[in-house]
UniProtKB/TrEMBL annotation:
InterPro entries associated with the record: ArsR-like_HTH, HTH_ArsR_DNA-bd_dom, HTH_MetalResp_TranReg, WH-like_DNA-bd_sf, WH_DNA-bd_sf
Presence of the UniProt keyword Disulfide bond in the record: no
Domain HTH arsR-type, first and last residues per copy: 1-92
NCBIfam families found in the cross-reference section: HTH_metalloreg
PANTHER family given in the database record: TRANSCRIPTIONAL REGULATOR, ARSR FAMILY, TRANSCRIPTIONAL REPRESSOR SDPR
Alphabetical UniProt keywords: DNA-binding, Transcription, Transcription regulation
Protein name: Metalloregulator ArsR/SmtB family transcription factor
Pfam families for the chain: HTH_5
CDD domains per UniProt: HTH_ARSR (cd00090)
Length: 103
C-alpha cells in the first residue's frame, strides 16, 4: 500500500478530516481536548481516529506528563498529495486557459 493510499484512506472519514481541521486551527491538542468537539464520541473513539491519522503520518504525538499532544503533520500531507495533484495540473491548466479564451 502506498503513502497516498494511506493518506486518502485516512482522509475519507469526515471525523478525521474535522480532527485535522481542529489541529490546524487550534494547534496541538490532547485526546480530551479533541473529544470536547465531538459530543457524539467518547475519548476512545477519538483515539482510534488519531491512530489512523498517525498511521498515515498526518499527525504526530508528543508526550507531556501523562498525556499525549497530537499535532498536524502538514508536511506529510503535502509530500503525499503533491505528486498525485501534479498528474492533474496540465488538465486544469488547459481547462483554465480554455475558460479564459471564452471570456
Amino acid at each position: 500500500m502506498s503513502e497516498q493510499d494511506d493518506l486518502f484512506r485516512a482522509l475519507a472519514d469526515p471525523t478525521r478530516r474535522r480532527i485535522l481541521d481542529l489541529l490546524a486551527e487550534l494547534g496541538p491538542q490532547t485526546v480530551g481536548d479533541l473529544a470536547g468537539h465531538f459530543p457524539e464520541l467518547v475519548a476512545s473513539g477519538i483515539s482510534k481516529h488519531l491512530m489512523a491519522l498517525r498511521a498515515a503520518d498526518l499527525v504526530t504525538a508528543t508526550r507531556e506528563g501523562r498525556h499525549q499532544r497530537y499535532a498536524l503533520n502538514a508536511d506529510a500531507m503535502s509530500r503525499a498529495l503533491a505528486p498525485w495533484l501534479a498528474k492533474y495540473e496540465s488538465y486544469w491548466s488547459s481547462a483554465l486557459s480554455r475558460l479564459r479564451d471564452l471570456a
